[in-house]
Write a structure and sequence with these properties.
By secondary structure, this protein is of the alpha+beta class. The protein folds into 3 domains: 137 residues, BirA Bifunctional Protein, domain 2, CATH 3.30.930; 104 residues, Anticodon-binding domain (Rossmann fold, 3-Layer(aba) Sandwich), CATH 3.40.50; 76 residues, Translation Initiation Factor IF3, CATH 3.30.110.30. It contains 9 helices and 18 strands. The strands form 4 sheets. It has a 9-stranded mixed β-sheet. Strand 7 and strand 8 form a beta hairpin. The protein is elongated and about 75 Å long.
Length: 345
């Protein structure tokens, strides 16, 4: 269902829209173990979509007690970055325990014939924010760049000199006809010059551009342009489908590799409040020691928010190498947690 926000401040296209699609999954289970398993499945789903298909790097954080979903036992969020160094929350999953079940008397009859309270979870995919992250992570100064699988238009065919040579147009139409059952493909027959068409479709982020003129027709080949690397290559017509599949995979892997490198470079370790302040000013997200993400850590979190205008994002769960720290970056007490701190949308 499409809903509108009641508050009107700080709306931004895709990042925080006034109107958006309200998509959530709410689940109820007989046991705590089943509910926690659903939380893990939510996380796996987020990883499959965000990283493996869209190429968006992220960290799953267990939110602090003071920043979890109201009424939840625990909140887990997928957080990624924007070019300005701010963190944007992506899909989140919440273990609700039996808190809402007891408040609203949600029960089921168990196999032993007794009524029991359900164990609940909820999950929200953050559709528009995911799209914003695709734009931010993969785009460049020439416009959008999409992974092949999710591109609205995957292949654009640009006929060259087709007004003077009918064979060119026929050649292009045959290619479109052969590919359209499997791919999203379109021929640009507008009156723009080839250069204007190239610029337009690069801006739109079409992963592959086919350039076809009299020479390509004569040689039974296609010139293919890759949007992500801006490379051009000649491919024989008989090999074009095999080449498309090869390039689709290479485009995604290239985008993932570039994004992961930038993401890893954006996370730094700090050991003091001064180091934290300097790193945040340089648009970094910081790993540091923290006394607690339980309620006893609220005081230190308030220092971060008031003095640095930043937020304790929580304890990262899926970092390849999660360091440990001896002291809390704020109070100097023993660090019970390693946390991420950054500016949050």
């Amino acid at each position: 269902v499409s809903v509108c926000r009641y508050e009107t401040k700080a709306t931004r296209p895709f990042l925080r829209s006034r109107e958006f699609l309200w998509i959530e999954a709410h689940d109820a289970f007989a046991t705590k173990e089943e509910a926690l398993q659903q939380v893990k499945q939510d996380m796996k789903m987020a990883e499959e979509v965000l990283w493996h298909r869209f190429g968006i790097p992220f960290v799953f954080n267990k939110r602090p007690e003071w920043d979890k979903f109201a009424g939840a036992v625990a909140t887990y969020t997928a957080d990624t970055l924007m070019p300005n160094g701010k963190v944007i929350q992506q899909p989140s999953t919440h273990f609700l325990g039996q808190n809402f079940a007891k408040a609203f008397d949600i029960k089921f009859e168990d196999k032993d014939g007794k009524e029991k309270y359900v164990w609940q979870t909820c999950y929200g995919p953050a559709i528009s924010r995911i799209f914003a992250s695709v734009i931010a992570w993969h785009g460049d100064d020439n416009g959008l760049i999409f992974p092949f699988e999710i591109a609205p238009l995957q292949i654009v065919i640009i006929p060259i000199k087709h007004h003077e040579n009918k064979e060119v147009l026929e050649y292009c139409k045959n290619i479109e006809e052969n590919l359209k059952e499997k791919y999203r493909v379109e021929i640009d027959l507008s009156d723009k010059t080839p250069g204007e068409k190239f610029y337009f479709w690069e801006m739109k982020g079409v992963p592959l551009r086919f350039e076809i003129g009299p020479k390509e027709v004569a040689n039974e080949e296609i010139v293919i342009f890759r949007r992500d690397t801006r490379e051009k290559m000649k491919v024989k017509l008989k090999d074009v489908e095999k080449k498309i599949e090869e390039l689709a995979e290479k485009i995604l892997e290239n985008l993932k590799s570039r994004a992961k490198k930038k993401f890893d470079e954006s996370i730094v370790r700090v050991n003091s409040l001064e180091e934290l302040k300097n790193a945040l000013q340089n648009r970094k997200v910081c790993l540091c020691g923290f006394c607690s993400i339980g309620n006893e850590g609220v005081g230190c979190a308030e220092v971060i928010e008031k003095e640095l205008k930043a937020r304790v994002l929580g304890s990262p769960m899926n970092l390849a190498k999660k360091p440990t720290f001896e002291k809390c970056v704020v109070c100097g007490k023993q660090a019970k947690e390693t946390v991420l701190i950054g500016f949050l949308y």
